[in-house]
Amino acid sequence: MNFTVESDIGLKRKINEDRAAFFERPDHFKLAILADGMGGHNAGDVASEMVITEMHALFKQENAENFATKQLKLEWLRNAVSHINQKIYHYSLTHENCQGMGTTMIAVLLDRNDCTISHVGDSRVYHITNETVKLVTRDHSYVNILLENGEISEEEAQNHPQRNFILKALGTEISIEPDFYEITLSNEAFLLICSDGLSNKLSTEEIGKIITTQVSVQEKGKKLVQLANERGGEDNISLILMTTVQEV
């Protein structure tokens, strides 16, 4: 599994509230995590950092037997997200400068080429091959509800004044129910996890075009960030790009 991690402050923000990380255990299990601290809330960077730190600790100490089946992986992710959500929520209640903080979250548990995905918020996962680019996750956002109900068009969604209003985030309520997805990567596939600082600036077609170019995974990641900044860079830009393609 080749991978790259990028997290860029962008051109307008004073701090980076995004966090992204890729962890590998001595066995074959791996974990990719991306969190986008909620803009407009206090201490979004604290919330996103807590996601990475807490999830890594749980992943590192877990017995491999609890990743043995699809159901066990789903249960582990559900329990981990619930634990971290409550930890962020209680932290925000007991630290005045962190009241109201929250974060999106994508966690991908990798068992060789099998990916079990947990998702909260409007950060995204794309599955890319030479033939197709598929958005795997469904944004937990007000604009996405309007889009799914046919009340606005794709073009209107891109420029909607409330496009950053999300309906579900980690740490803002005592309990949370993430969405789950399962994907098996083929031998010529890529999985892209990104914050909305990237997905708001590049179309699905543009993402696919960059990722399928004949350059290294690291160069692909840097090109995606560069293009998002060239388009304005108003938000933090973070991504994790993974692939089963073997680079020469």
From TrEMBL:
Catalytic activity: O-phospho-L-seryl-[protein] + H2O = L-seryl-[protein] + phosphate; O-phospho-L-threonyl-[protein] + H2O = L-threonyl-[protein] + phosphate
Domain PPM-type phosphatase, residue spans: 2-244
EC number: 3.1.3.16
Highest taxon above the source species: Bacteria
Swiss-Prot/TrEMBL keywords: Hydrolase, Manganese, Metal-binding, Protein phosphatase
Pfam families assigned: PP2C_2 (PF13672)
Cofactors (names): Mn(2+)
InterPro entries cross-referenced by the UniProt entry: PP2C, PPM-type-like_dom_sf, PPM-type_phosphatase-like_dom
Presence of the UniProt keyword Metal-binding in the record: yes
SUPFAM superfamilies membership: PP2C-like
NCBIfam families reported for this sequence: Stp1_PP2C_phos
Protein name from the UniProt record: protein-serine/threonine phosphatase
Organism: Solibacillus isronensis B3W22
Encoding gene (name): stp_1
